[in-house]
Design brief:
The protein is α/β, with parallel strands linked by helices. The protein has a domain at 2-236: Rossmann fold. Helix content is 36%, strand content 15%. The chain contains 21 helices and 19 strands. The protein has helices at 16-23, 60-63, 67-77, 92-101, 130-139, 181-197, 202-212, 290-294, 303-317, 335-346, 367-370, 388-394, 400-412, 431-446, 449-452, 481-498, 510-520, 526-535, 549-557, 563-567, 587-603; strands spanning 2-4, 11-13, 50-56, 82-88, 119-123, 155-159, 175-177, 216-217, 222-227, 230-236, 274-277, 279-280, 299-300, 321-325, 352-354, 379-384, 417-424, 457-464, 503-507. Strands 4-3-5-6-7-8 form a six-stranded mixed sheet, with helices on one face. A four-stranded parallel sheet has the order 16-17-18-19, covered by helices on one side. Helix 3 (67-77) runs parallel beside helix 6, helix 5 (130-139) packs across helix 18 and helix 6 (181-197) crosses helix 7 (202-212). It is globular and about 70 Å long. The N and C termini lie far apart (61 Å). The model is unreliable at 2-8 (pLDDT under 50).
């Protein structure tokens, strides 16, 4: 079915009949593609001046758990004359059917084809979602590269954490929104509405956005010069454009928009709960963490507002868990009072409060009080490094004494299972640090014996250090692939030696971490590799059953590049970094942190 929207003469193509008759009966989970959930907002696209497709480059179950997508969806649909509809990446079975039957990618609410929208916006949460972005554009009949798109095709924008290091996908996106989106995306949509009425072309819209907003990065308006692997220069093609950008920041976080009627998914989502963001920013400065350096300043919501949000969303959804979200919820100044207030209202309603991992040196000593209304399935502690010495280097000052006291408090409070997070490959790490991961975890498991005579069950998640843009360690190279393989063997050998059956180790895919390092710090030339990998079949690279490291190595090889060499690259201080213009702290500030960490290493006779 077709109809003319009447605004900007863009035709809307509704695919509801084709979806129902030709797709739903041929996929394993049709609930991913039907829409119509409780609390869904659906507007008349024909009556709207601006139509936005909010695309999440992963399956429905993952995207429906993403708080940022829900907030933007609510903000845009709250504007008269603007419609926002959700689009998720179809799983492999659905893609196969859609390509065979030539069914374009569509939105959930109206089943409108992707080309029917004025704006197609992506949430970029991880470097390994990029092939899904290209795949969704292609399934929607939209050119994957900005330069290939016609005037009648939508503006393609992107936001989320990866926008701060986005050059690797710059050739595929018309505009990146840097920083926090609630207010910025509204300003952007209003600009598009204004420009459409004035009869502006897409390029004119993009130039106006680049001039008006310091958080709007339009890659096509800028160019790089290269000198081998290094960047010689970065400049605007026109002299009146800024060359440094700032992150959008929501100053009044207390009253920032929150969906008061979250959508209740038809297919069980990764997280089915009332999610309430209690603070933004993180007072910690872990030298490997991009979010803690890019998401500033620190802001808190009041206890009253948090409880109000939780109550409203609970009554609109019936979810039986309230989750408190932030980068570092342990640093919420009145956490004990907040949990008590939530427990007072929700305790008799059989609604649990989900706490994120608590900071060991402060919050876990309050554990018995904090957990009265919390389900005790498992408690997560991000230890990161097994030795105090290594924690000092990465600037996570956690003492073993506090860690043991915290875990003992957890056992006494009723927890029997723990989950510990460690990272291998950190600067200054030794073989003893790697082996210590097993020893420390085993000691913490045995600590439960003094409580009830049993051994604690501990799941240990081990990831591989990935140097990130906008962090002090972003200049450093990643360890070679062989280092990670040896570390994994050391850990498993030590577990066998100790007979530690109570420990269950889960290791992140090494190839995936290498790819994250290569792409996450890559320049614009990475786009050719990403497109080549996608055309060779790469998609859902975050999924174990889909990720193919050999395919990616071949894609890099097509351009005379080696993914492991790129991942291990160290940047010089004099270099122009591929991300330094894209928000984030200044170089001097990050150098200060790096120098402090390197000094600690030198004092111990260690090297990177």
């Amino acid at each position: 079915m077709f109809y003319n929207a009447g605004v900007g003469k863009k035709e809307v193509k509704i695919l509801a009949e084709r979806v129902e008759g030709e797709l739903l009966g041929f996929v394993r989970r049709p609930g991913r593609y039907i829409g119509g959930e409780v609390n869904q907002v659906k507007k008349d696209l024909a009556a709207c001046e601006v139509r936005v497709a909010l695309c999440f480059p992963d399956v429905y179950e993952v995207g429906m758990s993403h708080t940022g997508l829900a907030i933007i969806y609510d903000c845009l649909n709250g504007i008269e004359g603007v419609a926002a509809e959700r689009v998720f990446a179809p799983w492999l079975d659905a893609e196969k059917v859609m390509r065979e039957k030539k069914i374009p990618l569509f939105s959930l609410q109206s089943k409108a084809g992707l080309k029917s929208f004025d704006i197609v916006g992506f949430s970029l949460t991880n470097e390994l979602c990029y092939t899904n972005v290209l795949n969704m554009l292609d399934l929607g009949g939209i050119g994957v590269r900005s330069a290939e798109r016609g005037e009648d095709e939508p503006l393609v924008i992107a936001g989320g954490g990866m926008s701060n290091c986005c050059e690797a996908v710059a050739d595929f996106v018309d505009l990146f929104l840097l920083g926090e989106g609630e207010e910025a995306v509204v300003e952007l949509v209003e600009l598009v509405r204004e420009q459409k009425k004035a009869g502006a072309t897409k390029k004119e819209m993009l130039v106006e956005a680049a001039k008006r907003f310091e958080w709007a990065y339009v890659p096509s308006l800028y160019e790089f010069e290269y000198d081998g692997a290094k960047i010689r220069s970065f400049k605007a093609k026109a002299g009146d454009l800024r060359c440094e950008f700032e992150n959008a920041v929501v100053e009044d976080f207390e009253n920032a928009p929150v969906p008061d009627r979250p959508i209740v998914p038809f297919v069980q989502a990764v997280h089915e709960r009332v999610s309430v963001e209690i603070m933004r920013g993180c007072p910690g400065r872990c030298r490997f963490c991009q979010a803690s350096f890019c998401r500033r300043p620190i802001r808190y919501r009041s206890i009253e507002r948090i409880i109000e949000i939780a109550k409203t969303c609970y009554h609109a959804t019936g979810f039986d868990t309230v989750s408190l979200l932030s980068l570092s919820s342990a640093d919420y100044p009145k956490l004990e009072e907040l949990v008590a207030g939530l427990g007072e209202y929700f305790g008799d309603r059989h609604v649990g409060v989900s706490l994120p991992s608590l900071r060991v040196d402060k919050q876990l000593k309050l554990l018995p009080e904090l957990v009265k209304g919390v389900r005790k399935g498992g408690l997560t502690i991000a230890v990161e490094a097994a030795s105090e010495r290594l924690r000092e280097i990465v600037n996570k000052p956690l003492k073993d004494e506090d860690l043991f006291a915290a875990v003992e408090a957890a056992y006494r409070a009723g927890w029997g299972k723990l989950k510990l997070y460690f990272m291998v490959g950190l600067p200054g790490e030794t073989e003893e640090d790697v082996v210590r991961i097993v020893q420390l975890s085993y000691e913490l498991a045995k600590l439960r014996k003094k409580i009830d005579g049993k051994t604690g069950q501990i799941n240990v998640a081990v990831s591989w250090f990935v140097p990130k843009a906008h962090t002090p360690f972003g200049w450093l190279g990643q360890k070679p692939i062989g280092y990670f393989g040896r570390a994994k063997c050391l850990i498993l050998d030590e577990k066998r030696k100790l007979g530690a059956r109570c420990l269950r180790f889960k290791f992140h895919d090494i190839g995936r971490s290498i790819l994250e390092s290569a792409i996450g710090r890559g320049d614009r030339r990475c786009g050719d590799v990403i497109e080549a990998a996608w055309r060779s079949g790469a998609r859902f690279d975050l999924w174990d059953e889909c990720f193919d490291y050999a395919l990616w190595r071949e894609a890099f090889g097509k351009f005379g590049l080696d993914v492991e060499t790129i991942a291990q690259r160290q940047f010089g201080r004099e270099e122009i970094l591929p991300w330094e213009h894209l928000g984030g702290p200044g170089k001097e500030y990050l150098w200060g942190h790096l120098d402090e960490g390197m000094e600690k290493m030198r004092n111990e006779g260690l090297s990177q």
